[in-house]
């Protein structure tokens, strides 16, 4: 009983210290002048060395920081390890505590699940974000092509459609264009930088297409429309693949359900036959 209480208190202190370490604070002037790394920076260096952080492109695509992701993994780990001892403590108060070995094994298992859960959630979000971004890029290519047909210049045809969409993908495109302009570069350079940041290769292709129009005045309307059609085909193929995978996953549950139904129907006859 005392050991479980001490374990719960220690885990709670650990969670508090981890959250405090990642909480933003005002840096001291002496630390800034000396370029002394903060405690959180040291933790992130160790996390990178141990490969605890996900791919930067995946985090950038969903708008997550490295610090928040590591903090989430550590928090889920401690939470998974903590709630079993806490439940055991509650059961001990009513005299129904399980064996300490079972409690320890369950705590370790829940901790491992909590440690891997943020990675699984991130992969699901990244997959959904890439699908959404692909659809937004197809629509954006068509809007840029319409702008070029309306005699808009390459720069204006690139910037104006980014202001029409309300989704997060259009906002990311607009932000990339604005940042490139503020740095004194051509707007399509922002596509290349955004592609390297998020890992969406199609952005780099669109940037090169529009750059060709800005440099030598090439007609890019047909190229942009073809790119939009290719993005739609890719998205449709991904949806078909996902539907096929989900259908395959349903084979085993359906088979088990059918087997259980057969056993349910045959059980009365078998029971009577064995007892007679």
Automatic annotation (TrEMBL):
Q: Where does the chain cross the membrane?
A: 6-24, 74-94, 100-122, 254-274
Q: Which organism is it from?
A: Amycolatopsis eburnea
Q: Which UniProt keywords apply?
A: Membrane, Transmembrane, Transmembrane helix
The organism's superkingdom is given as Bacteria
Query: Which named protein is this?
Result: Type II secretion system protein
Q: Which residues form a coiled coil?
A: none
